[in-house]
Fold this sequence. Notes:
By secondary structure, the chain is an alpha/beta fold. It has a single domain (7-253), classed as Queuine tRNA-ribosyltransferase-like (TIM Barrel). 40% of the residues lie in helices and 14% in strands. The protein contains 11 helices and 9 strands. Strand 6 (129-130), helix 6 (135-145) and strand 7 form a beta-alpha-beta unit. The longest helix has 17 residues, at 103-119.
Amino acid sequence: MTAAAVKFYVGLHQPADAQHFDLACISINRLRGRRKAVDCGDVLVDSGAFTELAQHGRYRHTVEEYAAEVQRLHDAGVVNISAAVAQDYMCETWMLEKTGLTISDHQRLTIERYDALLDCDLPVPVMPVLQGFAPTDYITHVSQYGDRLKFGMWVGVGSVCKRQGDPRAIIAVLQAIRSVRPDLRPHGFGVKKTSLLHPGVREYLYSADSMAWSFAARKQGRSANDWQEAARFADVVNHAASSSFQPWQMEMFA
């Protein structure tokens, strides 16, 4: 089995554990107020969108407050930030029920928050996020972004983490995006093992993050906060492009 190489940011609960990795994805909710440096090559700072909307139905922090914290982390040298993810709005049905809004509303709010974050003039790249549910929704959202999406831009692809039992669903979304903007470099948020290691999914992804290692460890009675669990998972993901990769290597993360 062969698969394309994907730049993998291991998702971590504890910022201190990033010292064991070259690339990590850490929520702003875990970094907020931190003063000790995170010893990691590059950190993708997540906006905490899933937790905020799933638990509260809204963002508890304004764009300006988010930007100020990212700015502080950068200026104080706490984190080497590869990008700060804009505060997007996921579009799964159950998430829409949380906010009482529509897919169109969530797409509009996602762009509005992206624009507002750009206006804060941060010294780090800001990652826009494409949202929707059906593949055509993502095409619509690309159109709505217009010339905000620069050639070759690194963009997040949201609302995929809860429908990964069938990787074909994610492939359909990624194919739709490529059909209108083949130049974009898609990042998959929270991609689980079934899709993360599927050659068809990896063909379309430039990068991805995942905390599947944590969920699997907890389910199997091990520590969901052990960085060594994350390291084993990251090692398998990073070697998935090797022709020697075998599906059984992921069984412990099922």
